Amino acid sequence: MRVKVRESKFALVMLILVCVLAGCRQSAQQADSADLTITLDSSAAFAVGKTELTIVVKDAQGNPVDDATIEVTGDMSHAGMKPELGSVQKGTQGQYKVPFIWSMGGDWILTVKVTLPDGRSTSKRFDVAVNS
Ligand SMILES: [Cu+2]
Predict the structure, then answer these.
(1) pTM for this prediction
(2) How far is the CA of 83 from the centre of ligand 1 (A)?
(3) What average pLDDT does the segment 77-89 reach?
(4) How many whole angstroms from 40 Cα to the centroid of ligand 1?
(5) Which of 61, 69, 107, 113 lies 20 to 30 A from 95 at CA?
(6) Would you say residue 124 has pLDDT above 70?
(7) 70 alpha carbon to ligand 1 midpoint, in Å?
């Protein structure tokens, strides 16, 4: 009888431990992702050289988000090139102007990471063809 009580206590402790760990994991995941809509203005053709990317960020309700940090990484589809980087910390009516350089014509993979002041972030990938 004594042993049984001890066993059930142990089981209870394990159960609590598992719940706590699972809870931690869940809240960490929530802290990681933000429900944002990220769009890249591609109304004008992309061409080699210095440019300013226009990225629009909206929240889940469709309201513009202006207090985010935007980090852009551009990689070409072929190997052997260093990534191009760009960032900006303030938007106007949800629009962020990010200084950027298309260093070569061809196919690019643009990764746009948006981080909110509370640390939540989300990323979106854009495939971009750049005219040489
Ligand atoms: Cu290249």
Answers:
(1) 0.75
(2) 10
(3) 95
(4) 21
(5) 107
(6) yes
(7) 23
Ligand 1 centroid – CA 105 distance (Å) = 7
Cα–Cα separations (whole angstroms), residue 97 to 13, 24, 54, 102, 115:
53, 36, 5, 15, 15
User: Domain of 22?
Assistant: 1-32
Q: How many domains does the chain have?
A: 2
Helix (H) or strand (E) holding 123: strand 121-131
Instruction: State whether 11 and 44 are in the same domain.
Output: no
Q: How far is the CA of 38 from the centre of ligand 1 (A)?
A: 25
The most distant pair of C-alpha atoms in the chain lies apart, rounded to whole Å, by 81
What's the 79 CA to ligand 1 centre distance in angstroms? 8
DSSP class of residue 42?
-
Same structural domain for residues 6 and 48?
no
Cα separation, 121 vs 111, in Å, equals 13
pLDDT tens, residue by residue, 24-64? 444 444 446 889 999 999 999 999 999 999 999 999 999 99
67 in the same domain as 116: yes
Cα of 131 from ligand 1 centre, angstroms: 12
